[in-house]
Amino acid sequence: WGNLLCLPAATATQSLDFGNRVGGYTFSSSSDMTHLQEDSIKNMISDPDIEELNLQGKNLTAFPSVINHLVKLRVLDLSNNSITAISDNIVNFLANLNNLQTLNLNSNQINIFPKPICHIPKIIKLEIADNNIHSLPMQISDLVSLNEMCLDNNKLTFLPIQFFELVNLTHLSLCENQLTNLSDRVEKLQEMQVLKLSKNCLESLPKELFTCVKLEKLLVDNNQLTYLHKHIGNLYNLKELSVRNLPKVTPSAWK
Questions:
Q1: Is 106 part of a structural domain of the chain?
Q2: Among 72, 114, 175, 236, which lies 20 to 30 A Cα-Cα from 131?
Q3: Which InterPro entries does this UniProt record tie to the protein (predicted)?
Q4: Mean pLDDT taken over the chain
Q5: pTM attached to this predicted model
Q6: Are residues 133 and 196 in the same domain?
């Protein structure tokens, strides 16, 4: 007993899910808080040590700037709301979220990619699928720490050259957009392990894609490809390849 070392108990992650119990209130379903507004959020969030905050499906129409005191926040879920834009006025606020690593904006009504997101310094996972985004800003290259990005089911027709400065990307999903081509600059994404391009309008894939030898999963089904590049054999780590429903590709269409 004389050599017993007493270690302090590990601190549990502080999280708050408005779909469950908050303070002294219990909500039986998400619809019970459909009209949650910023004042309500501010009143209920009193613990500055919260690390995970779930506000999905709360009928929010704007980014809740009242959470600016949550300096330890790592995960923020704002999916399934009615957010249409993120105002440039909260750039400084977002820049102060030094610990935010995961942001989920899936299933909102965003038409223009929110430039203020590009000021979040340490974000590594960004989900912004099921919106109406037509293009990405040049500032996208500022997301230098980004590892995972999901832009499924938007209206993207191309990726700006700045996008290919995201050299730390390992998982990228661009399914169900309107992309017609993929830039040869894709060769910069050498850390890429998963690339999903299903259900676009791609007519070809650049040979530079097949220099991304860390790729383990590549989905290009349901496109307008006319041939499959023979250099696909260079992807020696590839474990899953989906080339289904390519009506213009014949069994001999390898180049």
A1: yes
A2: 72
A3: Leu-rich_rpt (IPR001611), Leu-rich_rpt_4 (IPR025875), Leu-rich_rpt_typical-subtyp (IPR003591), LRR_dom_sf (IPR032675), LRR_domain-containing (IPR050216)
A4: 84
A5: 0.84
A6: no
